Amino acid sequence: MLKKILIFIVFVFLLTSCFDSENFEKTNNTASPLLKKFVQTDFEMDIPNSWEVLKSNNEIFPKPAYWEIVFDAKSTKAKDGFYRNILVLKQELQDKNIDSLEYMTSNYIWAKKNYFYIKKIEEQNVKIDNKKTKLYVFEARYSEDTPIAKFLQTWLICDNGYAYLITLALEKNNKNIDRYKWILGSFKCKNSSK
Q1: Which member of 15, 64, 102, 152 has the greatest number of CB atoms within 10 A?
Q2: Which residues, 6 or more positions from 145, have their beta carbon under 8 angstroms from its beta carbon?
Q3: Is residue 83 helix, strand or coil?
Q4: How buried is residue 80: exposed, middle or buried, by Cβ count under 10 Å (0-12/13-18/19+)?
Q5: Are 180 and 152 in contact (CB under 8 A)?
Q6: Alpha carbon distance 183, 123 (integer Å)
Q7: What is the pLDDT of residue 32?
Q8: pLDDT averaged over the chain?
Q9: What are the strands, taking DSSP E only, across the chain?
Q10: Of 43, 25, 41, which Cα lies nearest the Cα of 33?
């Protein structure tokens, strides 16, 4: 009897996890059907199907100094009062010979100054689009009035002469960040001439 109850509990758990709109996994280097590919002139990446792409991003967010907002999307449902979101910023490089890892290391120090509170949780050397860079996981808040959120962030230099800052924001208590890391890893440069 105990064995039947245990099997039933495992079955229910597996069944309910299959219907979570953000329960996506990457298997055999292919994205789950619960993801959609976002394609732009300069890059492409996968995002959850349930997220909405925001059209007027430069009106919603204040324009960051030296950066252009080129993509942002958010979840359609709040978790713990927070909408998961992703933001991609683009900046023309002054030094065309710098690589992603050098750029990331120097800019992480600068980026830390933009937060009211920041606590680094993890730093990983990663390859995105066959380029070495770093992935930072940290908790931060922009001001006293904003909640603490968990962020996954990386920078990537594409052959088109631009740097891309990719930031994914999650609710602070999200324990499943591994399944979000590879979303950043799905970013692919299209190396357009501009």
Answers
A1: 152
A2: none
A3: coil
A4: exposed
A5: yes
A6: 16
A7: 61
A8: 76
A9: 35-39, 43-48, 51-53, 68-75, 85-92, 117-128, 131-141, 149-157, 162-171, 188-189
A10: 25
* Residue 65: strand, helix, or coil: coil
What is the amino acid identity at position 20? D
| CA–CA gap between residue 104 and residue 123 (Å, rounded) | 11
Which residue type occupies 24?
F
DSSP state of 42: S
Q: What is the separation of C-alpha 119 from the centre of its chain, rounded to a whole number of angstroms?
A: 18
Tokens matching residue 145 = 């009035």
Residue for token digits 């996981």? Answer: 137
Least confident of 4-18, 29-43, 172-186: 4-18
Rounded to the nearest 5 percent, the helix, strand and coil shares of the chain are 20, 40, 40
**Which residue's structure tokens are 């979101």?**
85
**CB-CB contact of 109 with 100 (8 Å):** no
Give the residue among 148, 194, 167 at the shortest CA–CA distance from 71: 167
CATH tag, 2-189: 3.40.1000.10
Query: Which tokens go with 45?
Result: 């990446």
Assessment of whether the complete model's pTM goes beyond 0.70: yes
> DSSP for 3-38?
HHHHHHHHHHHHHHHHT-TT----BTTB--TTEEEE
